[in-house]
Write a structure and sequence with these properties.
disordered N terminus; binds calcium ion; about 200 residues; EF-hand domain-containing protein; disordered C terminus; single chain; Recoverin, domain 1; EF_hand_dom; two-stranded antiparallel ribbon; EF_Hand_1_Ca_BS; mainly alpha
């Protein structure tokens, strides 16, 4: 497969593996369509609890869409699942893309989506509670949520602004610095209840 495989560093790969384990909803060590649907349903349920929303069918459609991108990338319309190596290959070539511009656009998309889903009161700020709902929705160990929130709240005002979220997401996907604050965007790396699940590499 093409382009910039040499670019991803060890820490970036670990972060993508962390995402893989989050998305692997049924903990079978593979990603399949139902994982994306289950995550989407979970997000819809938990964000609905915070504010009594209708279920967000858009999320499920987006889950299906991402699975469609994966099938298209591997040119297998009947692809049933991918392992973590394939996930990293997909992210490297599809999400990271050919240059920084593609990556920045994709990161911006994720930030916008996180905000539109989790910023329930639409004040353009992620509160502690809204941040907690990201963790609960993604089933990331909640005991780290406060610490991760503080790391991302750069000006310490008790909210994560759009700029702070962009900063965190840029760190998460792009930084090779183990101390980069945004590494904790989706929880403490490698520390989660799914850690004990055997993942085949
Ligand atoms: Ca799975
Ligand atoms: Ca808010
Ligand atoms: Ca702040």
């Amino acid at each position: 497969m093409p382009v910039n495989n040499a670019m991803l560093q060890e820490l970036q790969i670990r972060k993508l593996e962390h995402l893989f384990r989050i998305i692997d909803f049924d903990h079978n060590g593979l990603l399949q369509k139902s994982d994306f649907q289950s995550i989407a349903d979970n997000v819809a349920i938990f964000t609905g609890i915070i504010e009594d929303d209708d279920h967000d069918n858009l999320l499920r459609e987006e889950g299906n869409m991402i699975w469609g991108f994966i099938q298209a990338y591997f040119q297998q319309p009947n692809l049933q699942n991918i392992d973590s190596k394939q996930w990293i290959e997909f992210m490297e070539n599809f999400f990271f893309g050919a240059d920084d511009e593609v990556l920045d656009q994709n990161i911006t998309l994720i930030v916008n989506r996180l905000q539109s889903v989790f910023d329930k009161n639409k004040d353009q700020l992620i509160s502690r509670l809204e941040f907690m709902s990201i963790f609960v929705s993604f089933r990331v160990e909640v005991r780290f949520a406060n610490q991760c929130f503080k790391a991302m709240d750069l000006n310490g005002d008790g909210f994560i602004s759009t700029d702070e979220l962009v900063h965190a997401a840029m760190d998460f996907f792009k930084s090779n610095d183990p101390d980069a604050l945004g590494n904790k965007l989706f929880g403490e790396l490698g520390s989660s209840h799914f850690q004990s699940v055997k993942v085949q590499y």
